[in-house]
Amino acid sequence: MAPPGGGGVGEFAAYSWKGKAVSSVHAAWRVPEIEERSPCGVAGTWVGAIGEGQTFIQVGTNEECVKPSDGLLSLKAEYVVFWSDTSQGYHPHTLFHARPGDLIEATLDIRHRRWHLTIVDGTTASRASFTTTDETHWPPYIAEWAQEDVQSEAPTPSTHA
């Protein structure tokens, strides 16, 4: 996962709000299903906040086509709920697994210089909720809800366009 304008990003679509300060971002979506004949790749749906100095934090879902290590079995689809930020090198950290069609609700909000991240699978009742002081050194000024065709190479951060 990479912030908008970052390297390693393929196709990208987002709803963005820009202002003096972002205190909360919330969205709900259904986990997209990978079609059986699709080529392997990774897609992501997420909400995030972006600030000055390359600060970026996100929580969402990834859908990935995985090739089995033995090469004998057919391709496998994997659906995960993740979070990431700049200090994590934009690499997604799995929180729990999801299924295609599951209803996901994700919220990021910042209070007292701490991010509060909550993501809930309304279909299975799985959830993750935690706080972090990562990415709090600059106030966020862009909120995004994005869908992204994630490429496998490591992203190179750049400024938001």
Spell out the blueprint of helices and strands.
Elements: E1 9-18, E2 24-30, E3 42-51, E4 56-66, E5 76-85, E6 93-97, E7 103-111, E8 114-121, E9 127-132, E10 140-150
Antiparallel strand pairs: 1-10, 2-7, 3-4, 3-10, 4-5, 5-6, 7-8, 8-9
Report on this model:
0% of the residues lie in helices and 54% in strands. The chain has no helices and ten strands. The chain has a six-stranded antiparallel sheet, with no helix packed on it. Strands 2-7-8-9 form a four-stranded antiparallel sheet, with no helix packed on it. It is globular, with a radius of gyration of 16 Å. The model is unreliable at 1-9 and 152-161 (pLDDT under 50).
Rg from C-alpha positions?
A: 16 Å
The proportion of residues forming helix, as a percent range, comes to: under 10%
Number of helix segments? 0
Structural class designation: mainly beta
The share of residues in extended strands comes to over 45%
Strand order of the largest sheet: 1-10-3-4-5-6
Approximate shape = globular
Summarize the entry for a quick read.
By secondary structure, this protein is mainly β.
Keywords:
161 residues, mainly beta, four-stranded antiparallel beta sheet, globular, disordered N terminus
